[in-house]
Amino acid sequence: MTTPILDLVAQQLAPNAGIASLGVQHGVLVLQLEPAALLAVATRLKSEFAFDLFLDVTAVDWPDAPLRFEVVHHFYSTTHKVRVRLKTRVSIDDPTVDTLTSLFGSAGYMERECHDMYGIVFRGNDDLRPILLYEGFSGHPLRKDYPKQLEQPLVPYRPPQGTLVR
Predict the structure, then answer these.
(1) Nearest CA-CA partner of 82 in 36, 30, 118
(2) In this structure, are residues 95 and 70 in contact, taking their beta carbons and an 8 Å threshold?
(3) What is the spatial distance between Cα 60 and Cα 63, in angstroms, rounded to a whole number?
(4) Domain boundaries, the chain
(5) Cα 70-117-90 angle, rounded to 5 deg
(6) Which of 40, 56, 76, 112 could covalently link to 131 via disulfide, CB atoms 3.0 to 4.6 Å apart?
(7) Which residues pair with 90 in a beta bridge?
């Protein structure tokens, strides 16, 4: 089941270079893009189709795939009350996509989180300082090859000295 706006977006964007595929999953239009097309498609979604709310950016780690990371952006239209998902794949050697901070100010914080957790680089975002992890944290904890037993305490671990009395 789709809505008229999703049909219009699919019709208008489908012939564009850089869009590998599109379809509807759970009522959400999903576009698989080449990394170079991300900023242009996001710009059109906002300016032409009223997708005015940037919800999230995250990634999925597919360790055995040649393009290991799938970077996923979610948008919402407060006018049409529907969502759109943009997906693009990048390799471990160059995990880079364009930033969306020029379109949505909140993208800066979300991109910092994705950079912390997966190591995705957002070209054009000049502030990729850690936002969830501390400076000096080694690695990206949501990558599937991150050792789950690895401890990186900010302060030296000290076992409890006794029991807490209440």
Answers:
(1) 30
(2) no
(3) 9
(4) 4-123
(5) 25
(6) 112
(7) 69
d(CA 49, CA 6): 9
4-123: CATH architecture: 2-Layer Sandwich (3.30)
Q: How confident is the model at residue 153 (pLDDT cuts 50, 70, 90)?
A: low
Q: What is the pLDDT of residues 128-150, one digit of tens each?
A: 999 998 888 889 999 999 997 87
Whether residue 164 contacts residue 140, with contact meaning beta carbons closer than 8 Å, is answered with: no
Quote the pTM value.
Answer: 0.88
* Tokens linked to 127: 């502030």
What region does 20 belong to: left with phi over 0, alpha with psi -120 to 50, or beta? alpha
**Alpha-carbon gap, residue 45 to 49, rounded angstroms:** 5
Estimate to the nearest angstrom the gap between the alpha carbon of 121 and the chain centroid: 10
Show the tokens assigned to 109: 């914080």
CA 121/CA 39 separation, integer angstroms? 14
